[in-house]
Amino acid sequence: MVNESLARILAPTIKRSLADEIADRLRNAILCGQLAPEEPLREAALSELMGVSRGPVREALSRIEREGLAVVTPTGRTYVARLSRHDLDEVFSLRKALEQLAIERACMYADPKDLAELQSVVDDMAATIARGISEKEAAELDLRFHDIVYQASRHQRLLNYWTTLRPQVYVMMLSRNVASADFRDAAVRGHQDILDTIKSGDKQRARDLIGEHMRVAYDLVSQSYGQPCANPDQD
């Protein structure tokens, strides 16, 4: 029998920490453009602005630094990150590796609820594109689809890595030209093909398809950057 006292101690915490809340607020401010690239993130000023002590602010800044949304200089100063072409290449090469494992496992473990949620996102994407989609809406729907694929993989550590990388992918997606024919042609069809392949359970087809999907995604984002450092689609 499980010790009841130990069970109470180890039970999941319902209330989120103050550092969690501050990290969310800073992350949202960066993603919405309220905090611009290279803008300083001063611990004392943020602490005073938010009416909290410096400890949780320090912890929150450390979290968004790990996510790649902030950088710390050798002198210890923290700034909002400016994601470079090199960052783009690193993020997408890593994302491709994670996505191929995620979709392979989703072919094995996705259940009817996962498939229904994926179809709902694809349908929302089609309807939103038809009426005129914004860069923010496109990024949110796109990432919602891939969130479900990672959840369907039933691989917690893989999901954790994706959660860390996700904010950088989101920032990069905001630079896509969603009015372009390339985006409109690829968005719904590409995600529907991924969903249909997961349903079929064809793992090799799924890996090939997600590799092509990542190449198209990279090309769409890279149009707003300079010359490439290296194509992350190359093995």
Give the uncertain stretches in residue-range form: 227-235
Average pLDDT works out at 88
Helix content, binned percent: 55-70%
CATH class of the largest domain: Mainly Alpha
Spatially, the strands of the biggest sheet line up as: 1-2
Tell the overall outline: globular
CATH topology of the largest domain: Four Helix Bundle (Hemerythrin (Met), subunit A)
Calculate Rg over CA atoms.
20 Å
Overall structural domain count: 2
CATH architecture of the largest domain: Up-down Bundle
Order of helices and strands: HHHHEEHHHHHH
Query: How would you sum up the major sheet?
Result: 2 strands, antiparallel
Name the CATH superfamily assignment of the largest domain.
Answer: GntR ligand-binding domain-like
Strand content: under 5%
Structural class of the secondary elements? mainly alpha
- By DSSP (H or I, 4+ residues per run), the number of helices equals 10
Secondary structure tally: strands: 2
Alpha carbon gap, first and last residue: 52 Å
Task: Please tag this protein with its features.
single chain, globular, 2 strands, Four Helix Bundle (Hemerythrin (Met), subunit A), 2 domains, 235 residues, mainly alpha
